[in-house]
Amino acid sequence: MSDITIRRATADDSPRLTRLVRTSGAYRGDYAAMVEGYQVGGPYIEHHPVFAAVDGADGGRVLGFYALLVDEAELDLAFVADAAQGLGIGRLLMEHMTGQARAAGLDSVRVVAHPPAEEFYLRTGAVRTGTVPPTGRIHWERPELRYDVA
Questions:
Q1: Cα separation of 136 and 144, whole Å?
Q2: 53: which strand partners?
């Protein structure tokens, strides 16, 4: 893998980010309902800090992304393409996210995690703070974590 760049996503990235979410191997079986019909829309991307990790040699192929809700101090979305798993891209994205949160004046960032992703967040510096009960189409508890960034 060549140079990885993290850049601000734009509304033009909406189809690529949406495809990354909908095709994520982490959301198969019981978890498929969470991403069925999900869209990372252009207005969402323009309104929130959304950053994409792209492969510089491939003209900007999106390998992963995250969305930080600054007003809520919450990581809303974080995905790495299945083919790019295990290459350190998720770690780069979380390091970037905590830097952006710090620059925005946040002390911490809340994460309500997809259960299979909890270990990733713990390995990248988050601490578990509890669980979030099932709601709506989500019929399972989700781990609640926090990155301290101050």
A1: 17
A2: 6, 64
Is 52 exposed, middle or buried (CB count within 10 Å of its CB: 0-12, 13-18, 19+)? buried
Using CA atoms, how far apart are residues 77 and 150, in angstroms rounded to an integer?
A: 21
8 A C-beta contact, residue 144 and residue 128:
yes
Q: CA torsion 26→35→93→148, rounded to 10°?
A: -100
Percent of the chain with pLDDT over 90: 77
Q: Which of 22-31, 100-109, 121-130 has the lowest mean pLDDT?
A: 22-31
Specify the pLDDT at position 128: 98
Q: Cβ atoms within 10 A of the Cβ of 88, count?
A: 13
HEC per residue, 18-29? HHHHHCCHHHCH
Cβ distance 114 to 87 under 8 Å? no
Residues 6+ apart with CB under 8 A from 66: 50, 51, 75, 77, 78, 79, 93, 94, 96, 97
Total Cβ atoms within 10 A of residue 66 = 23
Residue ranges of alpha helices (H) inside the chain are 14-22, 42-47, 89-103, 118-123
